[in-house]
Automatic annotation (TrEMBL):
TM annotation in the entry: none
Record bears the keyword Transmembrane: no
Keyword vocabulary terms for this entry: ATP-binding, Coiled coil, Cytoplasm, mRNA processing, Nucleotide-binding
Domain Pan3 C-terminal knob: 302-439
Chief localization: cytoplasm
Keyword Transferase: no
Pfam families: Pan3_CK
SUPFAM superfamilies: Protein kinase-like (PK-like) (SSF56112)
Cellular component GO terms, alphabetical: P-body; PAN complex
Protein name: Pan3 C-terminal knob domain-containing protein
Domain of life: Eukaryota
Organism: Rotaria magnacalcarata
Compartments in which it is found: Cytoplasm
GO BP annotation list: mRNA processing; nuclear-transcribed mRNA poly(A) tail shortening
Length: 448
């Protein structure tokens, strides 16, 4: 079902009004569909990148791959001079990072000034952490008692007594996020590059973690944009790396407290108390280690979180393997469906062709005739009272035996019930191969 939903997202189309407002082609991309949840094709200023931005889903004109386009407006950058920065980010490949594919300037949007467009892989059927876990309406429905007043001030602990904390994330889910985010940070900092976009609105999560089943998958989107807009990755990269680590601690604290204001300085003590009451000391120590300033001159590194993650890392590996097995099983089913679909296509392409109506090879004892009866046996069977039999299991079983050339025998009857044949699936398969070979020869040479 997950693969089906993802495929439906990939194939989704915009309405005609939206399509009409889009340029027919931007660079090497066409079929642009706005993705912003507000008004379609209305720019908004990004709090992360400080420019007006728009997001699109588009299709590459040569590869037919579905891509995500991030359009930055009002930014004057000589992209040709940023070749080294762009290439450094294009080389980053990680399971939890949406990969940057290319960056280009364009006037295809009919602007007075060109826009800079960042092209990423498109991740279907996902939403941001902000939308997933910080929906105020759903939190109230679950009975969550917010530790902060509407004004943002801390509520006393006594005000929350007798209330339910059912909307707090499970600790196993928080650790899954910790492992995945720390993994991508470790990869980037080893280059060295800084993420610079570790916030709730830039991290995507797939459709599994909604139920807290321990199968979440996250991606960080928008990597490289900040560096490319700055025009360099040198000089300040080490400071940005330290900022990443602090953002990491802040992000985990907000997730643990189920509050987007929980990491603010005035709420820090209350938030840490929430973590201490509801989670393990390891999680609290990890948050404090990266969120609070270091007492030594030695700079922090992401590797320092491993002792606190400990054996939980193995649970993440196990979850990844289980998820991979499930997807592989679903893929196996789809491959089987593909095989049967091709078989049906060949069978339908072979039968009742108008050019065969005057061919002497077509007769009631020929290969095509028993195949026609076999098709009726599969798809047009009726019950004792003449009612149609719509049994998918019967269809699949017959096609599988036919494809395998089973020695099982079946009784085929003509529509007028004047002809009855007892044949095996093996004989049907041989007749099918001969008839289809004749058809392909006729298609290539024009003669039977």
């Amino acid at each position: 079902s997950e693969l089906l939903r993802r495929n439906q997202t990939l194939m989704a189309c915009a309405n005609l009004d939206v399509v009409g407002a889009m340029p027919e082609r931007v660079g090497d991309y066409y079929n642009l569909i706005p993705l912003d949840s507000s008004q379609a094709n209305v720019p908004h200023k990004s709090r992360t990148f400080r420019y007006q931005t728009l997001s699109y889903k588009a299709t590459h004109i040569r590869t037919n791959a579905t891509c995500y386009l991030k359009r930055i407006m009002g930014c004057k950058l000589p992209v040709a001079r940023l070749y080294d920065v762009v290439e450094a980010w294009k080389k980053i490949v990680h399971a939890n990072i949406v990969q940057l594919r290319e960056v280009f300037l364009t006037k295809d949007f009919d602007d007075e000034q060109p826009s800079i467009v960042f092209v990423y892989d498109f991740i279907p059927y996902c939403e941001t952490l902000q939308k997933r876990h910080f929906n105020a309406t759903s939190s109230l429905l679950k009975g969550w008692s917010n530790p902060y007043n509407i004004s943002g001030e801390d509520r006393p602990f006594s005000a929350g007594k007798g209330t339910s904390n059912t909307s707090l994330l499970s600790e196993s889910l928080v650790w899954e996020y910790v492992v995945q985010i720390s993994s991508l940070i470790r990869t980037l900092h080893g280059v060295p590059l800084a993420c610079r976009c570790l916030n709730l609105s830039r991290i995507l999560v797939d459709g599994d973690s909604r139920a807290g089943r321990g199968k979440s998958r996250i991606w960080v989107s928008g990597v490289g944009i900040a560096d490319i807009l700055d025009g360099t990755i040198n000089g300040t990269v080490h400071q940005h790396i330290l900022n990443d680590l602090q953002d990491f601690g802040r992000l985990i604290l907000m997730l643990a407290c189920n509050s987007s204001v929980g990491a603010q300085k005035e709420h820090l003590q209350t938030s840490l108390e929430i973590v201490q009451r509801n989670y393990s000391n390891d999680l609290k120590n990890l948050i404090m280690h990266f969120l609070l300033p270091s007492n030594t001159s030695k700079p922090k590194t992401i590797n320092e979180c491993m002792p606190m993650i400990g054996a939980r890392f193995y649970a993440q590996i196990d979850n990844s393997h289980v998820r991979g097995d499930n997807l592989e099983n679903e893929l196996t089913k789809e491959l089987d469906c593909d095989r049967l679909f091709r078989l049906i296509c060949k069978l339908d392409a072979l039968l009742e062709r108008p050019e065969h109506s005057i061919n002497h090879a077509w007769s009631e004892t020929g290969d095509r005739y028993i195949l026609k009866l076999f098709r009726d046996f599969i798809f047009h069977s009726v019950g004792f009272d003449g009612e149609p039999i719509l049994d998918i299991a019967h269809i699949v079983q017959c096609l599988n035996k036919f494809d395998a050339g089973s020695h099982d025998k079946i009784c085929l009857t003509s529509r007028d019930e004047q002809n009855v044949m007892i044949v095996s699936y093996s004989e049907l398969h041989q007749a099918f191969e001969r008839a289809f070979t004749e058809l392909t020869n006729y298609a290539s040479t024009g003669s039977t």
